[in-house]
Amino acid sequence: MIALRDFTQNDMGNLVTILNDAAVTQFLSPKIPFPYTTEDALWWVEEGSRGDLTKAISVDGQLVGCIGVTRGDYEYQKSGEIGSWIAREYWRKGIAGSAIQQITDVVFSGTDIVRLFATVFSGNIASMRLLLKSGFTQEAVLQKAIFKNGQYFDSHIFAKLRPLNNTE
């Protein structure tokens, strides 16, 4: 069963293993340390993942990934940026799609966020396809907007809007 839950101390070993796989971190923000240490995992479990909308993705209780939504500030307070990663051995098994659907349902039914968006590195075709399949629309391509490891990437912007009712 695919579930979203809080991170626990029991996830630390899997965090270190998964986030030391260069294929997993290739298109992730360099805010995630590489190599990823036990100390990084401890900080993540105890502090970094403690936001309301940051969740571990588990399959039958085992950590296989992470998904989260970061709310915007000030005039962007009704928008949230969604991001995720999945262990390589769980790619293309429907897990990421299920996690996106679950977090989208939580955000649109339990918060006042009306716009979810994702920024995807050029070259990350699998994530682009997944977002389209999950009901997101591609809005823009920002050329050379991302710089990581000495290389420029275009940033592909995808969004999904919560249907508004007549009172909003």
UniProtKB/TrEMBL annotation:
Transmembrane segments: none annotated. It comes from the Bacteria. Pfam families: Acetyltransf_3. Coiled coil: none annotated. InterPro entries: Acyl_CoA_acyltransferase, GNAT_dom. Residues 2-164 form the N-acetyltransferase domain. This is GNAT family protein.
